[in-house]
Design goal:
The protein contains 2 helices and 10 strands; from the N terminus they run ααββββββββββ. It has 197 residues and is mainly beta. It has a single domain, classed as Cupredoxins -  blue copper proteins (Immunoglobulin-like), CATH 2.60.40. A hairpin with a 5-residue loop joins β9 and β10. The longest helix has 16 residues. The structure holds copper (II) ion.
Length: 197
């Protein structure tokens, strides 16, 4: 099966799962990629400055992840990025509060896993206690969810979509928990590394 066909069938199964009668048929990739049915009010006011922010609480940072922020990677992106091309670096021991938003009728989710897990079809349980939306394998659509966890172990992790086969198709961002980092930072693609404010 070609990659294109695989992705088409993935989208088709996702659409069937979402039971959206208004969804376009699979196979019309170019148009399907416009991601119909977005509930735009869910993320209309989200900008790059919201992706990573310091909380008022000590050693606490807020991350906002918007699935299908753009049509990039067939909508399987967070904040417009996929395949680990956006990198969050957080000092070890910090609290991370995640707001997950999926304005799309196609289900997506967010769960923290070890980076290598993104090569699998299923993400399984969150690596850190509390580090994911409920039932990430089922996914959520047209809604928003929050979760928080303590990043109490250094390592290379991913903020991955737990809907089956999405992460392996690139639906994940990098999350490095670092003993040497002093402040939380975010690098979006080839842009400069930016400290959380
Ligand atoms: Cu996804």
């Amino acid at each position: 099966m070609t990659r294109r066909l695989l992705l088409s069938s993935l989208l088709a199964s996702s659409l069937a799962f979402a039971q959206q009668p208004a969804a376009p048929p699979a196979g019309h990739d170019a148009h399907a990629l416009e991601v119909p049915g977005l509930k735009k009010e869910l993320f209309a006011d989200i900008t790059e400055a919201d992706f990573l922010k310091l909380s008022d609480k000590p050693k606490t940072v807020k991350i906002t992840l918007v699935a299908t922020f753009t049509a990039a990677n067939y909508g399987m992106n967070f904040n417009g990025y996929s395949h680990g091309k956006a990198i969050f670096t957080i000092p070890t021991g910090w609290n991370i509060e995640v707001t997950f938003i999926n304005p799309s009728p196609i289900p997506h989710s967010a769960v923290v896993v070890e980076k290598d897990t993104t090569k699998k079809l299923q993400m399984g349980e969150p690596y850190f206690e509390g580090g994911g939306v409920p039932k990430p394998e089922v996914g959520l659509s047209l809604t928003k969810a929050e979760f928080k966890f303590v990043a109490d172990e250094a390592g290379e992790f991913a903020l991955a979509c737990g809907f089956p086969a999405h992460a392996i198709n690139g639906h994940w961002l990098a999350l490095n928990i670092s003993d040497s980092a002093k402040v939380p930072t975010l690098q979006l693609g080839d842009k400069p590394v930016v400290e959380a404010k």
